Amino acid sequence: MNGIDVLKRFGFQIDKEPKSIYPFSPVYRITDKGKELIVKRTQNPIEEARKLVNYTTYLKNNGIKVVTPVDIQMDNPQDIGEETYVVYPFIEGTTYRGTDNQIFDAGKLLGQIHQLSLEDNKYELEEYDVYDFNNEEIEESVQAIEEFAKKVNHRTDGILLKEKLLQIVTQQEELKNVGLPNVATPHDYKANNLIYSPKPYLIDPDNAKWIPRIFDLALVLLLFHNELSTAPDKIFTPNQWELFLSGYKESVSLTDLEKSYWQKSIEHVFLDEVMWLMAEFEEDWDNPSQLKLFDSLIDLVFDSSKYKFN
């Protein structure tokens, strides 16, 4: 489905194919009747998209700065071809640059979002259930990582990495069955999904899930700085992580169970999110900043002792 057809389905008339402002999926910025709008893919099929809208509307009604579908004459969101698209407002502001205030405010916003989660999955968001990694996947992924690293003359110890990831695989069932508290959350809470105006505004809630709370936090620690040129080219420093948590903990207190499984949660989310990122996107290895981020991620998965909850 081309961009012109997508926009026409929402009643927007354009003459030439729009260019996506995001390199990895169609995200179109348009002007209609003097308003700046974003048209993008969202959860699919339409039933899932409507659940997402109900959830984000709940967040917005409770004071969370998050985009929700704009009011237009056409259905919004709607199925178009095999995908589902939504029209959001374009949010003016500045991008994240790693300042102390931005880090604290980002933590505060996520804490407020988690605090609003109900005890049950009221909005019927997709439930996290990725506990089926196997040794063959690890071996194939590490092989790909080694090949990509070799092409750009980047040193990566594949043997040690494979040993570590194979050990993490053995922890999956324990994490699945231990009873970690779940939350409804936009997930994918990263700097490139926030606009500061001047407080953080969540502009991409479309990966919302029902997921163990500390998995969501682990993803922040691992990939908050991913895919954003104005962000630092490494994970949070321990001091920055403490700053993020100081904002987060204004609204949320983690349980002793969560604290005891924090390191294993970091490792599991590395398996789920970072291994895939490093093994599937060869173009990332041509980016020096991304290589530095990869190095800091690998260091973290081997030793996360400086990133605790006090």
UniProtKB/TrEMBL annotation:
InterPro entries: Aminoglycoside_PTrfase, Kinase-like_dom_sf. Residues 27-234 form the Aminoglycoside phosphotransferase domain. Its EC number is 2.7.1.-. Keywords: Transferase. Gene3D superfamilies: 3.90.1200.10. The keyword Transferase applies. Pfam families: APH. GO terms for molecular function: transferase activity. This is Aminoglycoside phosphotransferase family protein. The lineage of its organism: Bacteria, Bacillati, Bacillota, Bacilli, Bacillales.
